């Protein structure tokens, strides 16, 4: 009986996390990211060399500008997840 009630409470937590506004926002941003990636893929597949170089240069510049920030945020999150120093 304890196992059943525990599983039921875990199921309620999962359903609550699916309907949270943060999860909805993350899902929407994921759809936007995938859509932009497909559009950039189509641009690269036009076989126009200048457009292809523009996509590559933009990806490189974006990585240069924002990858350090992402690694810093990941490092902060991973250090907060540990119970012991």
Structural description of this entry:
The longest helix is centred in the last third of the chain and has 33 residues, at 49-81. 87% of the residues lie in helices and 0% in strands. The protein has three helices and no strands. The protein is elongated. The mean pLDDT is 80. It is mostly helical.
Summarize the helices and strands and which ones pair or pack.
Layout: H1 2-18, H2 21-44, H3 49-81
| Measured distance between first and last alpha carbons | 38 Å
Number of strands: 0
Mean pLDDT: 80
> Number of folding domains?
2
User: What is the beta-strand fraction?
Assistant: under 5%
> What Rg do the Cα atoms give?
21 Å
Overall outline: elongated
Biggest sheet descriptor: none
Q: Determine the oligomeric state from the structure.
A: single chain
Unreliable residue stretches:
none
Fraction in helix: over 70%
Total DSSP helices: 3
SS-derived structural category = mainly alpha
In short:
The protein has about 80 residues and is mainly α.
Essential attributes:
mainly alpha; 3 helices; 0% strand; 85 residues
């Amino acid at each position: 009986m304890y196992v059943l009630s525990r599983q039921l409470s875990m199921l309620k937590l999962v359903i609550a996390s699916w309907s949270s506004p943060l999860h909805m926002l993350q899902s929407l941003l994921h759809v936007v990211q995938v859509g932009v990636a497909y559009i950039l893929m189509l641009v690269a597949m036009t076989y126009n060399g200048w457009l292809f170089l523009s996509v590559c240069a933009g990806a490189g510049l974006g990585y240069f500008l924002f990858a350090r920030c992402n690694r810093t945020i990941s490092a902060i999150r991973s250090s907060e997840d540990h119970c012991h120093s």
